[in-house]
Specification:
The chain is α+β, with helices and mostly antiparallel strands and 506 residues long. The chain folds into two domains: 9-270, Glutamine Phosphoribosylpyrophosphate, subunit 1, domain 1; 293-341 and 352-466, Rossmann fold (3-Layer(aba) Sandwich), CATH 3.40.50.2020. It is globular, with a radius of gyration of 23 Å. Residues 1-30, 347-352, 354-358 and 492-506 have low confidence and may be disordered.
C-alpha cells in the first residue's frame, strides 16, 4: 500500500481532557446495564462522513461517552474524535467538511476498558509500514491485557489504555506479505467478543468474532456497501439491509469489489442474548428477529410464569415498555404509562447537595398519579443489577397512591459478571448473586418479585428451552457458561496499574 499522511492525529492521541461525566454512574441508576459500543463504515460514497455521522446518531444508544469518525480522501486520512454525544460534534457542517473522502468509519463509545479520555476515543488510527489503519471495535477482548503486556515487553509503545489498540500492534508486528493476511493473523491471536470495522487507504474491512457474540450487519446505499452494528443505522439513511456478517467472517471491500475470508474453524455461534434484552434498539432486526417482538414475547412469557391479580401493567421506561406491552396483551390487564420519563435530563446536571442528589431519580422518572392511585400495579423492567433504582421507583409508586406494587423482570437473575463489553459489576455488586429472591423483594420494597426463567427466555426466542450442552446464545451472565477463554481472568501475574485495563474499567 502507498504511504499516506495523517496530519494532527498524533497530537490528538496525546491530548487528555480528563474524565467525562457519565450519566448514571452512581446509585441513582444502579439497575441500568451499560451499553457497549457501536460501529459504522461505508465505502465509495461522496458523502461518506455525513452518512457515517447519521449512522452513529442512530447508534447513540450503544454509547454516549464519545464519538469519532476517520475518513480517507484518496491521499490522506482525516480524523475527528470528541468526548460527548454525536450531535455535540458531528451536527456541525464545518466538522463534516474536515472529513473529506468517499470512505469513512465511525464509532460511538461507552468505555468498558480504558478511561474516558480523548486518546481512548475510537476509531483508533496508526501509520503502519504498509500505510494507515483505522479500527473501530464493539466488544471486549478477554486476552487483551495479556497481549498488551507481551507487546509492551517486546517494545511496543501504547498510546491508549483500551484493548482495541492491541489489534493495531498485532497487525503492525505481523510478517505476512499481504495486508489482509496480517489482519487475519492478528484476529487469530485475540480472544473474546469483537465486531470490527477497519479502514485502510484501499479497503473497508469488517470482522466478527467466531462465536458471533457482538453483532455486525451489511447494508447498501446507492450501490455502496455499509457495515454497522444494527439495522436501525441503515434505516436512518435509507439504506437496504443485505445480511448479517457471519460469525468468524472477514469481509473486505475495495475498488475490485467484495472479498470474503473465513479463517476460523466452524464453531457453534453464541450471539449475546442481551442484544434482545436491552442493548439493541427496539426497531432493529438482530439475527433475523425483531427486537421489539422478542421483548414483547419476553413480557408474554412473564405473564405465563408469574402473573398475579392486578389492575394495571406499568412499564419502567423506556426499556421496559415492549415487555410490558407483551405482558398486558397476554394477561388482558390494561397497559398504563404509570411512570413518565423526562428525556431532557442533562448528562452533567449539577447535584450540589446530598438531599438533591437523592431526589435524582425523580428528575428522570415521575409518577403518573392518575394512572396508579388506588390501584394494584405490576412494574415491568428489562433487568435488575444492583436494585437501587428499582427500590426508588417502588417507593415512588407507593407515594403516588398505588395500593400494591409487584415487580417483574423480563430476564433471568444476573448472577455473573460479563467480560465481552457489558459494564457489569463483580458478583459482589450483583443483587441476585448475593441475595435470595425474598431478600431482594424486601430490599426493593415490592409486594412480590419474579424474574423470567431461563427456559422461558429461550422459549420466547422460539427455542424449546435452553440446551445446557449447546446453548444458542451467550447467556453467561445468568448461567456462568462463558463462550470463550477468559485468559486475563485466569492469569496470576501481578499487573502494573498503567497496564490494567480491568482496573480502569467502570
Amino acid at each position: 500500500m502507498d504511504k499516506t499522511e495523517n496530519p494532527d492525529l498524533n497530537a490528538q492521541l496525546d491530548l487528555d481532557l480528563g474524565p467525562a461525566p457519565r450519566e448514571g454512574h452512581d446509585d441513582l441508576d444502579g439497575d441500568t446495564l451499560r451499553e457497549e459500543c457501536g460501529v459504522f463504515g461505508i465505502y465509495g460514497h461522496p458523502d461518506a462522513a455525513a452518512i457515517t455521522a447519521l449512522g452513529l446518531h442512530a447508534l447513540q444508544h450503544r454509547g454516549q461517552e464519545a464519538a469519532g469518525i476517520v475518513s480517507f480522501d484518496g491521499t490522506r486520512f482525516h480524523s475527528e474524535r470528541r468526548l460527548g454525544l454525536v450531535g455535540d460534534t458531528f451536527s456541525r457542517r464545518e466538522v463534516i467538511d474536515r472529513l473529506p473522502g468517499t470512505v469513512a468509519v465511525g464509532h460511538v463509545r461507552y468505555s468498558t476498558t480504558g478511561a474516558t479520555i480523548l486518546r481512548n476515543v475510537q476509531p483508533l488510527f496508526a501509520e503502519l509500514n504498509a500505510g494507515g489503519l483505522a479500527v473501530a471495535h464493539n466488544g471486549n477482548l478477554t486476552n487483551g491485557l495479556t497481549l498488551r503486556r507481551e507487546l509492551v515487553r517486546s517494545g511496543s509503545i501504547m498510546q491508549s489504555t483500551t484493548d482495541t489498540e492491541v489489534i493495531l500492534h498485532l497487525v503492525a508486528n505481523s510478517r505476512r506479505s499481504r495486508f489482509i493476511e496480517r489482519y487475519i493473523e492478528a484476529l487469530r491471536a485475540i480472544e473474546g467478543a469483537y465486531a470490527l470495522v477497519s479502514l485502510t487507504n484501499k479497503k473497508l474491512i469488517g470482522a466478527r468474532d467466531p462465536r458471533g457474540i457482538r453483532p455486525l450487519v451489511l447494508g447498501e446505499l446507492d450501490g455502496c456497501p455499509i457495515l454497522t452494528s444494527e439495522t436501525c443505522a441503515l434505516d436512518i439513511i435509507g439504506a437496504h439491509y443485505i445480511r448479517d456478517i457471519e460469525p468468524g467472517e472477514v469481509i473486505v471491500f475495495d475498488e475490485h469489489g467484495q472479498d470474503i475470508h473465513k479463517p476460523f474453524p466452524p464453531i457453534a455461534p453464541r450471539p449475546c442474548i442481551f442484544e434482545y434484552i436491552y442493548f439493541a434498539r427496539p426497531d432493529s432486526i438482530v439475527h433475523g428477529r425483531s427486537v421489539y417482538e422478542v421483548r414483547k414475547a419476553f413480557g408474554a412469557q412473564l405473564a405465563r410464569e408469574s402473573h398475579v391479580d392486578i389492575d394495571v401493567v406499568v412499564p419502567v421506561p423506556d426499556s421496559g415498555v415492549p415487555a410490558a406491552v407483551g405482558y398486558s396483551q397476554h394477561s388482558g390487564v390494561p397497559f398504563e404509562l404509570g411512570i413518565i420519563r423526562n428525556h431532557y435530563v442533562g448528562r452533567t446536571f449539577i447535584q450540589p447537595t446530598q438531599s438533591i442528589r437523592e431526589s435524582g431519580v425523580r428528575m428522570k422518572h415521575s409518577a403518573n398519579r392518575a394512572a396508579i392511585a388506588g390501584k394494584r400495579i405490576i412494574l415491568i423492567d428489562d433487568s435488575l443489577v444492583r436494585g437501587t433504582t428499582s427500590k426508588k421507583i417502588v417507593r415512588m409508586m407507593r407515594d403516588a397512591g398505588a395500593r400494591e406494587v409487584h415487580f417483574r423482570l423480563a430476564s433471568p437473575p444476573i448472577l455473573y459478571p460479563d467480560y465481552y463489553g457489558i459494564d457489569l459489576p463483580d458478583r459482589g455488586g450483583l443483587l441476585a448473586a448475593t441475595h435470595s429472591l425474598e431478600e431482594m423483594r424486601e430490599i426493593i420494597g415490592a409486594d412480590s418479585l419474579a424474574f423470567l426463567s431461563i427456559d422461558g427466555m429461550y422459549r420466547a426466542m422460539g427455542e424449546p428451552g435452553r440446551d445446557p450442552a449447546n446453548p444458542k446464545f451467550s447467556d453467561h451472565c445468568f448461567t456462568g457458561a462463558y463462550p470463550t477463554h477468559l485468559t486475563d481472568q485466569t492469569q496470576t501475574e501481578p499487573q502494573p496499574r498503567q497496564l490494567s485495563l480491568l482496573a480502569e474499567a467502570s
